[in-house]
Each structure stands twice: as structure tokens, then as C-alpha cells.
Amino acid sequence: MSQQFVKSKLGANKVAVFIKPTCPYCQGAVELLKKYAFKPGHLEFIDLTARNDMSSIQDYFLQSTGARTVPRVYIGEVCIGGFSDLDALDKNGELVPKLKQLGALQ
């Protein structure tokens, strides 16, 4: 069920970020992505603390991405990792081309 939930939030033309609102790395990911003008529906933040299956979702992240931590950032249907990975893509100029390739930016 956790796998189905995660996959239901992913899309070929969107960015999905699984977060916990009190996590400073999650806050960093939210702030970084909000700098960009996404088309409506192409950026989603999913609060895991609002779910009673949070632990099993994080177990699925460990199994599928190699890390249980949040944020888990998916660009399209591919997990690029967490905040450090997202920040590195942004700083080296690779994030915007990826987002444009998805058709997620205005």
C-alpha cells in the first residue's frame, strides 16, 4: 500500500517532494523549489506526518532509493535523493534544464 501511495504521487511531468514540515532539510527543499515558476499541478509537497503509514512509506523509500530520510525528491518518476542532491543540482545549473525537460516550468 505504501508503494502504491508513493507511485500515485509521481508523474512524468511533475516534481513530488515527500516531507516532514518540521525537518530543516525539508524546509530547505521547499524554499529552493518555490524559487521557480512551476505550472499548476507540476509541483507537489506531500506531508508524511499527516499519514498513519508514514513509517512504512519511509521503509519503502529505503528499499527503493537506498535512504529512509526525508525529503525524498522525485523529478519525474526518478528519485534524485534529498535536499543536498537537489541543492547540488541547483548550484551546478542542472536543475532548471531538468525541470524544463519535464515541461514543469512556466
UniProtKB/TrEMBL annotation:
One of its GO terms (molecular function) is sodium channel regulator activity. Keywords: Disulfide bond, Electron transport, Redox-active center, Transport. Residues 15-80 form the Glutaredoxin domain. Signal peptide: none annotated. The gene is GLRX. It comes from Crocodylus porosus (Saltwater crocodile). The keyword Electron transport applies. InterPro entries: GLR_AS (IPR011767), GLRX1 (IPR047185), Glutaredoxin (IPR002109), Glutaredoxin_euk/vir (IPR011899), Glutaredoxin_subgr (IPR014025), Thioredoxin-like_sf (IPR036249). It comes from the Eukaryota. GO terms for cellular component: mitochondrion; nucleus. Belongs to the glutaredoxin family. The keyword Zinc does not apply. Has a glutathione-disulfide oxidoreductase activity in the presence of NADPH and glutathione reductase. Reduces low molecular weight disulfides and proteins. This is Glutaredoxin-1. Pfam families: Glutaredoxin. One of its GO terms (biological process) is positive regulation of membrane potential.
